[in-house]
Amino acid sequence: MNTKKFKKEIWEYYESHGRKLPWRSIYDPYKIFVSEIMLQQTQVARVLKKYPEFIKKFPSFQSLASAKLSDVFLVWQGMGYNRRAKFMKHTAEIIVKDFGGIVPRDQRILKTLPGIGAGTAGSLLAFIYNEPVCFVETNIRRVMIHFFFKEEADIEEKDILKKVQETIDTSNPREWYYALMDYGSMLPKQGKINVNKKSKIYKKQTPFVGSRRQLRGRVIKFLLDKKSGSSSEIMRVYGAQKNEIDEVLVSLAKEGIIKKKGRFYSIPEE
Q1: Quick check: is 250 in a domain?
Q2: In angstroms, how far apart are the furthest CA atoms of the chain?
Q3: E strand or H helix at 22, and its extent?
Q4: Which of 29, 38, 108, 148 has a C-alpha 20 to 30 A away from that of 116?
Q5: Is 205 part of any domain?
């Protein structure tokens, strides 16, 4: 498919079926930042429920930067991947302290901030500053494979990025990326195969129930509810094996999500 025909189809679909999402109707860099971190590895439907609550509790970079980590985790409950909440708070602290509360307009700097990789750095520049930067996320990758790599397998990410670069609408990249994401979100609903499996970097997510991710979330919830606890106490509540609990506690402590004092663990205040 040629670029002109491709763009026409994407824009026509967006004009008729574009999603009305709360973070799209605003130009507040902080609120866009929160939405982009929340949308990492999380379905839009879940973010729609949590986003208003989070923004109400922490309405600015300053309020998030000065909040207790335990309070951030409390609001974050139900989102999963709790390290994202810690990264978000840490990044807010850096933006306030080092950049005067303004999101850096430099992709290289953004990629040095906690929890922000190349994809999120690009999306922040596109959605906050309407910069025609090149980035890929799940739905964009799906669109590019669907249109331009139909007969291929083990597709390199650099080849997908190249196609994104070639087709980007430089006059309005912000809306263009919204349009790509909405088209990509629609494709699985057509009952077709998940073309993202053809990507070389594709990894199937393991089931959540019974996973280490679920246990990590339960440990954090326990410590938020009880303020502190030992591995034995947590084991009695959730019935997991002690070695599993200990491994999760060590991992969470290493990441700075929890802290240990004696045999007891708790959520850090800062």
Answers
A1: yes
A2: 65
A3: none
A4: 148
A5: no
